[in-house]
# Entry
Amino acid sequence: MNKEIIRDEQLGEQYSVIHHKSGLDILVWEMEGYRTTSAMFATKYGSFNNIFKTAGQKEYTTVPMGIAHFLEHKLFENEDCTAFALFARTGASANAYTTFDHTAYYFNCSQNWEQSLEILLDFVQKPYFTQETIDKELGIIGQEIRMGLDSPDRKCFYDLLKALYSEHPIKIDIVGTEESIAQITPELLYECYNNFYDLHNMFLAVAGNVDEDKVIEIADRLLRDCEDKQVETFIPNEPREVCMERIESEFEVGLPIFNIGFKALPLSGEERLKAGVTSAVMLELLSGTMSPLYKELLDLELINSTFCYDLMLKDGIFFLSFVGESEEPDRVREYIVREIERVKEEGFEQKRFDIVRKSIYGQLIREFTNPERVCADFLASSALDGVDSFAQMRAFRALTAEDCRKALADYLDPRYSAISIVRPKTRKE
# Structure
């Protein structure tokens, strides 16, 4: 076992990265004077990692879509009780989630953090899958899938993914489909668990009222040495061109909902982090509530308060989007493209750039006062991206207005854009 101290002198903050003998990386941020503790035990295994192989295997294995999310649900159960019941005894609030590229199990508490950490490490390392419990879960997740199908916002988002991406599995819903989860068996769950819940492919992040030596002692006692499977996932090559320029559907909505997406070339590591920082500032400058574009669209009554922007940066994925409600979504798109072309030539005003950059930077600094946010937004994010937790702050400090203009020109190219619209259902006479 060896340890690194990661420190940012300007912020006066630091945390430890312990490379544990089991193969697990443990990130600990002691926050003196705080009463709460947050911990996350996560694996780099998400919904689009459904094609994989391990060291020594020549052929890839393909498993049903939705299996990562299904496994997350089932891991909370063992032969005797659920992990929720165990956490209830310590007073911790616990939960889990599955994203496109990782699955995380976490708790937050104000007391008994040692016992809660023991529960977290114990149940995640003890899979228990039977056909009987799978059959029970099929009905529960099937209902979740049907509820998702009833969401116009979810429909609009996933339709945008289908329009933007022709090959990448991100266009498939995280929960899968009723047909795909019906193919799940105990054997498949164990196969996915054994390959992806390998401690070499996982990390533990702990922040707040915590003692680093005690974390290591608990880890030494509960972590099980395991073989490094060197799991490799297959991500199809994706062209920059969009699959289709528009996609429309009907739903029981009062106003049309739109998602306008711009597809950029995927990045990794430090470059991905810098792109995320630059895009966050650039999008706020372009279309935030204080931008000329936002004011113009609002004055023309083309948008309402639901209008916002978003971006997604994952393995093989990078797109930026504008979301909202409008009677005329195509006109909104026209105004956005027009503003992109203007800023591409003129750049962003330096004074407004300084205000926006400092504002977002300040919001991030405030997160250092929240153990839950430190755990999830800094420690966990750095473990997933392979960079240190202060890299994001350094990128903000070095950012310039010209960086944002260049990012706009590179990432918001109208030639690689698509629009998804969910319109009110047509009434039949």
Q: What stands out?
A: The radius of gyration is 23 Å. The chain has a mean pLDDT of 94. The longest helix spans residues 131-149. The CA atoms of residues 278 and 399 lie 7 Å apart.
